[in-house]
């Protein structure tokens, strides 16, 4: 399997600073000048790797594998130095498929330190010959946290229901989801008496999506159309209603030439104080030519963005060009240029940093252009690799920083001028007979900012190493190691810049099958035991563990 090491960055268009500014604002970062909001007409949006396209151009009668399109409902977030630590070792297909062939449903229960409780259930069934449904529920909570006991407790509940109706020509899918997260703003100064109710935050997300897509591999026209509504509400009277529709399609013109089309429409209303209507519309027509030595993709990516509160209504368009040369075997060399508009919403920001202050200023990020090049391929004996260098220009590049005077909350700081980011990334993967799989990745970032003092809380180096083992038919082991360093934050009360200590997060999970239907699991997280801070004044749990049983049926 070829490992993807690319880092797609998007740029921001609107701009704005955030929350209340200190009386003596530092270096005017994050501030958006009026002249920056002039109407521009060169806007573009880059779709998530959601091109229903494949590395090889589909012929007029492509294979099923070629026609299969990967699809993402949400557009890609600005991924410069992914701020989230989400340990998840690579799964082992052999182990999972063996269990799934026997049993489709399961229930898991577990508990651990920090007064933690875990419960998960999954069920599926065939209602009729062409109709399948499934549902899942997950609960994970910690009664106490890393500091001040219950004042840093967390709880999350997730419910998902899915349904599919499939014929020989098309598939209709629908899903309903409900998420509830409860936590506390525990980054306050100590010692201090705190009323827990004044620092409690609750995020509730409800979403419904439905779509139709082609499943006939012999059709010359491939398509996918999906639409859905997501509603977010928090504990501070903020709500965000987001309706998104995505259309993707391809038409085989010849065995070597394919026309592609992608379009997105997002209509968003955010109420957090004054009501704000923020819309984004994208159109991306491209063409792809391919032979045994060369693949060329070219086209235009255009986006219209409007924001009632910012008084913005503008359109940007950017060229899309990607070259992929295969000099020998499975070795590829690629280069290209593209641009995009990254859609920033309250929900996407909260997914990155849950401790946002109320009335956070929202603005999109524009990736004016991104020049990139690199190589990827398979070297044989189970080894694959990818290396990439990217140099991109952004407008409204953003970071997170502590608010003033309450440093326990964060606002978004935008660089309303031009910012440049150099990214060097590499990844190596190794697979041995489906018994062992390992992936090692590293990313290096260099930020050149116009108005911000630093890329607040974004790393200069990030890395991960994930491994999966099948020891025998009963014992499965996965491990993850994450590393982040170079993050900086600023306390606007003391006017001090703080460089956070490097993060090393080592995790281990062991699954042992006690029988055909019963297994035991133990998950050890942050084995190194450091109460590292991903965001200033928010130490994380040290060594924590979960243990429990799973029953399949």
TrEMBL record:
InterPro entries attached to this UniProt entry: Beta-barrel_TonB_sf
UniProt entry keywords in alphabetical sequence: Cell outer membrane, Membrane, Receptor
Gene Ontology cellular component terms for the protein in this record: cell outer membrane
Species whose genome carries this gene: Larkinella humicola
Transmembrane annotation, as ranges: none
Protein name, UniProt field: TonB-dependent receptor
Disordered: region residues: 14-33
Chief localisation class: membrane
């Amino acid at each position: 399997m070829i490992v993807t090491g690319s880092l797609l960055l998007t740029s921001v268009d609107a701009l704005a600073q955030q929350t209340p500014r200190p009386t003596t604002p530092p270096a005017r970062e994050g501030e958006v000048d009026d002249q920056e909001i002039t109407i521009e007409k060169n806007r573009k949006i880059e779709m998530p790797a959601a091109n229903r396209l494949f590395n090889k151009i589909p012929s007029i009668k492509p294979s099923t594998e070629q026609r299969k399109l990967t699809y993402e409902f949400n557009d890609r977030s600005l991924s410069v130095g992914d701020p989230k630590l989400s340990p998840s070792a690579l799964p082992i297909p052999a182990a999972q498929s063996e269990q799934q062939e026997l049993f489709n449903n399961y229930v898991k229960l577990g508990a651990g330190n920090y007064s933690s409780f875990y419960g998960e259930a999954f069920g599926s069934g065939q209602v009729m010959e062409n109709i399948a449904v499934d549902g899942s529920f997950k609960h994970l909570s910690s009664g106490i946290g890393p500091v001040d006991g219950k004042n840093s407790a967390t709880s999350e509940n997730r419910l998902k229901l899915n349904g599919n109706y499939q014929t020989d020509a098309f598939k209709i899918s629908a899903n309903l989801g409900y998420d509830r997260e409860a936590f506390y703003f525990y980054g306050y100064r100590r010692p201090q008496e705190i009323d827990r109710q004044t620092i409690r935050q609750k995020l509730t997300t409800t979403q419904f999506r439905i779509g139709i897509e082609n499943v006939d591999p012999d059709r010359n026209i491939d398509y996918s159309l999906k639409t859905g509504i997501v509603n977010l509400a928090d504990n501070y009277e903020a709500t965000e209603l987001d309706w998104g529709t995505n259309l993707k399609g391809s038409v085989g013109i010849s065995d070597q030439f394919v026309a592609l089309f992608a379009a997105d429409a997002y209509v968003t209303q955010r109420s957090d104080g004054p009501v704000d209507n923020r819309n984004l519309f994208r159109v991306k027509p491209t063409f792809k030519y391919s032979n045994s030595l060369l693949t060329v993709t070219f086209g235009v990516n255009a986006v219209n963005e409007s924001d009632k509160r910012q008084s913005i209504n503008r359109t940007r368009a950017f060229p899309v060009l990607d070259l992929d040369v295969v000099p020998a075997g499975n070795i590829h060399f690629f280069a290209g240029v593209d641009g995009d508009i990254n859609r920033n919403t309250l929900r996407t920001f909260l997914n990155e940093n849950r401790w946002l202050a109320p009335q956070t200023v929202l603005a999109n990020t524009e990736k004016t252009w991104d020049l990139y090049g690199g190589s990827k391929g398979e070297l044989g004996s189970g080894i694959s690799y990818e290396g990439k260098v990217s140099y991109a220009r952004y407008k409204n590049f953003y970071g997170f920083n502590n608010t003033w005077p309450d440093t326990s909350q964060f606002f978004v700081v935008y660089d309303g001028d031009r910012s440049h980011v150099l990214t060097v990334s590499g990844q190596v993967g190794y697979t041995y007979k489906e018994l062992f799989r390992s992936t090692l990745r590293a990313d290096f970032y260099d930020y050149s900012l116009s108005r911000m003092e630093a890329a607040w809380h974004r790393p200069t180096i990030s890395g991960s190493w994930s491994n999966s083992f099948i020891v025998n038919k009963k014992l499965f082991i996965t491990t993850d190691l994450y590393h982040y360093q170079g993050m900086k934050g600023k306390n606007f009360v003391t006017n001090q810049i703080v460089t956070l200590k490097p993060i090393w997060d080592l995790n281990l999970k062991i699954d042992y099958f006690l029988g055909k239907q019963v297994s035991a699991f133990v998950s050890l997280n942050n084995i190194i035991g450091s109460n590292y801070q991903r965001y200033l004044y928010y130490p994380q749990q040290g060594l924590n563990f979960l243990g429990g049983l799973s029953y399949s049926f």
